[in-house]
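Look over this record before class:
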Amino acid sequence: MQPEPRAIVLAAMIASLALAAVLWNIAGGGHHARSARHWATGSALLSVGAMTNIMQNEIHFVFAIILAIPAMVAGFSFLILGVRRARGQPTSAVWLFLPVALMFDAVVYWGMVLPSFTARVIVHSILTSILAGALVWNLWPWRAGQFQAAAWFVMVPAALMTVMFAVRAVSSILNGAEPI
């Protein structure tokens, strides 16, 4: 018996949303409250976007593609903003608005105007690979020290996603994209 991808995503989504809710509530008004809220928002957007996206056959295209995929991109952007804020690094709305705007424009154009699954996959894969890599890059200073366990807990899957989505982008460019 094969594992059901929807069940796996649903379990991950429930865990991520629960952790996001806990993080949001414990953030309070402390020094890192805004960082924690960015992280919680990012986790929630990634989870809801992924769950909505895998329900493509059951829900309207606008929700499953046009809103879900940019939501996942926004989730990564919020994670990066949260880490940068927690590290005392400059934060810029460019991390949020530019990737989300690019992804939204791509899914609208190649989803409704000139439908192309391959083009959507290429743009999504490139943006996700870049953002997952940027998340690793921003967490890298915490690889040792007080936050090392948390940093590695996020860096390892983010690094794997960086590679996986880069391979998917290259494969889609060379061979076209097939639904997973």
The CA atoms of residues 58 and 64 lie 9 Å apart. The chain has six helices and no strands. The mean pLDDT is 86. Residues 148-175 form the longest helix (28 residues).
